[in-house]
Amino acid sequence: MNSALCTLFLFLASSLILFHVESAANDIVSDTCQKSAASSPNVNYDYCVKALGSDPKSRTADVQGLGLIALNLLESSVTSTGSDIQQLLKQKQDPYVHQCLSDCSDLYSDALETTKEAVGAYREKRFSDVQNSVSTVCTDATTCESQFKEKKGVTSPLTKQNGDATQLSYIELAILAIVKGS
């Protein structure tokens, strides 16, 4: 009977500890996203929490670590979008849409290199360089999306992907402001 009570006690104690650790991890993500959304009207709080929380490393990260996570998510988004564009370019479509996709391919190719440079700069704490790079990536995604709107009746097949890249850029820029202010 005594060992059963000890086992139960140990289980409850470890559960509480794990709950506390998980809660603290959620707090840093939630707090960072709240500060980011408060400092930038472009940051969507719910998107921020979902995106940063999707990386298991966010459970043990500090704010600076969340900045690197956001950059890695941005790099992944840019890489994925570049692949999506290549698949779309293989499909038969309106010549105008094909030209837009071709332009987007160039933009995302540049954005991928820029994002990789930003990750290196972040690790070296060259935050001004990161800020410039992420702003460029954000502009590339916005430019890609906007060119589809230049012709009436054309719908961008990349709206979600461009929105993700833009939102992740805004999140990164807001976290950078927090890190630089610390």
From TrEMBL:
GO terms for molecular function: enzyme inhibitor activity. CDD domains: PMEI-Pla_a_1_like. Keywords: Disulfide bond, Signal. Residues 24-175 form the Pectinesterase inhibitor domain. It holds the Pfam family PMEI. Residues 1-24 form the signal peptide. It comes from the Eukaryota. GO terms for cellular component: extracellular region; plant-type cell wall. One of its GO terms (biological process) is plant-type cell wall modification. PANTHER family: OS02G0537100 PROTEIN (PTHR35357), PECTINESTERASE INHIBITOR 12 (PTHR35357:SF17). Belongs to the PMEI family. This is Pectinesterase inhibitor domain-containing protein. It comes from Eucalyptus grandis.
